[in-house]
UniProtKB/TrEMBL annotation:
Keywords: 4Fe-4S, Cytoplasm, Disulfide bond, Iron, Iron-sulfur, Metal-binding, Methyltransferase, rRNA processing, S-adenosyl-L-methionine, Transferase, tRNA processing. It is found in: Cytoplasm. It comes from Candidatus Jettenia caeni. GO terms for molecular function: 4 iron, 4 sulfur cluster binding; metal ion binding; rRNA (adenine(2503)-C2-)-methyltransferase activity; rRNA binding; tRNA (adenine(37)-C2)-methyltransferase activity; tRNA binding. The lineage of its organism: Bacteria, Pseudomonadati, Planctomycetota, Candidatus Brocadiia, Candidatus Brocadiales. This is Probable dual-specificity RNA methyltransferase RlmN. Reaction proceeds by a ping-pong mechanism involving intermediate methylation of a conserved cysteine residue. Its cofactor is [4Fe-4S] cluster.
Amino acid sequence: MYKTEISSITNMSLAELEAVCASIGEPVYRAKQILSWIYNKGATDFNQMSNLPKDLRRKLAEKCQVFQTTVDTLTQTKDGTEKFLVRLPDGNEIECVLLREGKRITVCVSTQVGCAMACRFCASGMPGLERNLNAGEIVEQALHVKNHLPPDERLTNIVFMGIGEPLANYDNVIKAIRIINAKWGLGIGARRITISTVGNIRGIHRLAQEELQINLAISLHAPDDVTRSKIIPSNKKTGIKNIIAATQEYFQSTGRDISFEYILIDGMNASRQDAESLARLLKGIQCNINLLPLNPIEEFNFKPPSREAIETFCKILKKHGLIVTLRRKKGDHINAACGQLRLQSINFYGKD
């Protein structure tokens, strides 16, 4: 497993940083001062922490670093979506995306370098799984976006929907969430944090016991196992009924509604019959359904349905009393579909 040689502050809890301060002969209250500089004031270097003694800053620099990642590329489009290609200390790259909807400012973060799920509509899994991210590498994506925002904007939401399967990197993701949620960290409320999974059942069971009021989203994308297994190969080992049962346990434990993500793919999962089947599957379940037309990817031959087909699908679900949100495609001009920017960077498509 990859490990950084020098500890990053962003990978530490308050208790861990207090232990570092004590180990270099400093009072533990310095830890909150350091964290305030990073999470509140946007410091990326110890030299920016002007109220800390120079000797302390020197000792910290010898033992730790503030950030372990850098932004390699920033692309943006007219709808306000911005995509960050983030370089890791081992040379690998990941993506995070800034999404704007009115006062709602969301960052979509990655949890792994690559992905093992190999979903048939997603670029993330095409090169395979390289490694898990540590908690600091996850947290820093949110910090890069926060530090990039103009003074009149504030980061309000975090979604774990970027590259990777979050629940396959469970411990690091939970640590990152606790840092993001902490008052001494980014201070983002648990109910504004969402984890999206293709259906890691063991992870859902564990998450239900964490006593975290975070939102759970399931990448469903099909109303039956035959279709879903074509889109998400890992479904062959899990099955929709088992995933639904796990989500109900999560709801019982947390009281949080479940969201089902459904990417509409022409000729695959977007017919009237598919809509009726989906309505039957989710009947009686307290949930939200987020419909999203496919963001096409060069290597796959899939395409989104027509606008008429999308609206018909949506109307059928609503007719059955389901709560449905039709998401607008964002960032398609900047390859904002998950993993596309990284693939271009590593020359996966064979482009110059």
